Amino acid sequence: MAVNVIVEKCKGCGKCVKNCPFDAITMEGEGKNKKAVIGMGCTNCGQCAENCPFDAIEKTEETVHNVDITLFHGVWVFAEQRDGALMGVSIELLGEGRKLANEIGTELCAILCGENVDGLVDELFAYGADKVYYANAPELKSYTTDAYTKVIYTSILKYKPEIVLLGATHIGRDLGPSLAVKCGTGLTADCTKLEIDPTDKKLMQTRPAFGGNLMATIVCPSHRPQMSTVRPGVMQKAEYVKGKKGELITLDVSFKENDIRQKVLEIVKNVGEVVSLTDADIIVSGGAGLGGPDGFKLLKQLADKLGGTIASSRACVDAGWIDHSYQVGQTGTTVKPKIYFACGISGAIQHLAGMQNSDYIVAINKNEAAPIFEVADYGIVGDLYKVIPAIIEALG
Amino acid sequence: MKIIVCAKQVPDTNEVKIDPVKGTLIRDGVPSILNPDDANALEAALAVKDANPGTTVSVISMGPPQACTMLHECLAMGADDAYLLSSRAFGGADTCATSTTIAAGIKKIADYDIIFAGRQAIDGDTAQVGPQVAQRLGLPVVTYVQKVREFKKGSVVVERQLEDGYEVIEVKTPCVLTCVKELNTPRYMTISGIIKACEETQVTIWNENDVNLPPEQCGLKASPTQVMKSFTPAPKGKGEMLSGSITEMATTLIAKLNEKHVL
User: Fold this and answer.
1) Which of A141, A186, A275, B154 is in the most buried spot, having the most CB atoms within 10 Å?
2) Could you tell me which residues come within 8 angstroms of residue A304 by beta carbon, excluding any fewer than 6 positions away?
């Protein structure tokens, strides 16, 4: 697809320049001869075409056929395991992959790499995989880019899946790009929605861009496989059907010297409460309404109950109640958890800038006119010292 | 040592607002900045230079001519030279095509020991171009680098950030390392650096011919993925105010969050 200006229709109004999220359009020429020119920053998002009052911008299809896409069948899920345990996102992908496979009318497969993780094969069948491709080797015990890329690329080449889904974890986001280049295909990162186009069965991948201010639906029309990484926690987990069986295909794996150029010397797990706010699924955040540093102890109780972490507004950091590393907002960290509890936070614009892309915002504040309620999904007017214990209680 | 840093000029997405009536992006007055993770990549390179006199740091970017401003900033921070891949032919590139172009530019610079890149750019958040450049150059890659521990002969030991900890990885050089913000704190430009960047150092601009890329390997034509449509998410309406006693509100809240499958 390409975006073109139809010069005869362009009146030089400049509306497209203002609407372009990527600053890619300029006005060239003088006075009445001013015309829009699309520059190299263009990502073909089509915002300009949609907003042109004169229909002077068109988006056209451009077809490049590189591979025979009819040779590719099946939906593959990368079954990511760490220390022999399947990652939650892989189960979510099996749930989503099942839907996609049914809509296309094809099979759902999992590709599993590891060392002696045979037990996971049955688990993958139970979560709905029709086939499991299993690579078992000591070199695959811990993830390395080179080893995993080699094994999975070789299998893609041989078995030709039409779709490959990976979790957008630190591993999936490392493996995906390397695989895509090897396969000569495209990859759409951090998808939040996947659909099958009913007309031609191609995968429509929707993802946020621009810090979540813009959503884009991406297709990969003439290359295969169609590859996506999917944010953890977005899709529904597959149902576990005990005893369900499928076909196991054991992959031949062999490595030569220099095939693997990364060596994992050590894996260190965080201890205690060192949690990165950016990666937290649940954040319980406190503001001036806490009244003092001890308030964070209560927030911590709720956070621990939910497996989340605490955070704060700038007010608490300035007051010296908590370290700056916990601060959310314009001068702190930008967060996108699944749930953000704003407790005793009024909702200054600088704070909102750091958390308004959270999936769900719960606001607890004594003041019913607090601006935080404007962005909250659920609001509770009340004393946080009474409300939070009640929530902990309700969680059982 | 010779180090190459991949950088991108991006709009400061924190400053982007949505027009509440039309639901469109308001980009007026949004500044363009050096992508934050790329600033960490540059700082990592400059730290190596500080510790090893004789090291040179080259910065490479792809983008419109305006991106020279960002590259001058990199020079003022202490980079030795800067290259901008800029041409109409590069327009509409997805990450796949972008990595081809940047790899071609890096091949032309040649003789590098380490390539530092940011983990991801804040306008697209894909985290793809770094590892893809590595693949195209046939180099090993480590992404999410949060610490550079030690340079050895023929390898480097780094820490790779995981969701719940980190891995210590030894990787053969030359290699590509993509950096996260925990790696370091980027330095400021110095006055002398700014003067030097403005007066002495020029940004070298290359088009597809300069880096020996046929047009069909650039930009839109070389992009497997295409944007079918884009839209601004429906503005978040005011949510629901819960009512009842505190216990009732707490119970309702948990029930509603359970319904949405977020708990």
Assistant:
1) A186
2) none
